[in-house]
């Protein structure tokens, strides 16, 4: 994973960008909200404002050398599903998608996404494990 695309800029993807910035060769990001794009533009190689539900926008945004994509669209499940669909159609092999609900996770799984991220649930499970090990 050296060249990634971040699709949708929310608090989770901003955290990803902060961690990945300076450690990867290339990071690009897209969101429909200019204010969100402005928050990360100095941390990525390429960023644009665009409709991530539109296949032409996603296609023109993606660089052929992108090997991994992260989708994190906040509460917009529709945008998440469209973005995943377009990435699959374009042949992106490694897709990580943030799910905001169990139903969202089920839909992503049905679409063939193996890497489904639920930050709140994952953090809670990690914290429980940590607390359990302490006793």
Task: Tell me the number of strands.
Answer: 6
Low-confidence runs (pLDDT<50, min 5 residues)?
Answer: none
Shape verdict: globular
Say what the CATH topology is. Answer: Rossmann fold
Mean pLDDT equals 91
Whole-number count of domains: 1
SS field, number of helical segments: 6
Approximate strand percentage: 15-25%
Order of helices and strands: EHEHEHEHEHEH
Please give the alpha-carbon distance between the first and last residues. 37 Å
Task: Indicate the CATH architecture.
Answer: 3-Layer(aba) Sandwich
Could you describe the 3D structure shown?
The chain is α/β, with parallel strands linked by helices. It has a single domain (3-134), classed as NAD(P)-binding Rossmann-like Domain (Rossmann fold, 3-Layer(aba) Sandwich), CATH 3.40.50. Helix content is 46%, strand content 20%. It has a 6-stranded parallel β-sheet with strand order 3-2-1-4-5-6, sandwiched between helices. β4, α4 and β5 (94-98) form a beta-alpha-beta unit. The radius of gyration is 15 Å and the shape is globular. The model has no long low-confidence stretch (mean pLDDT 91).
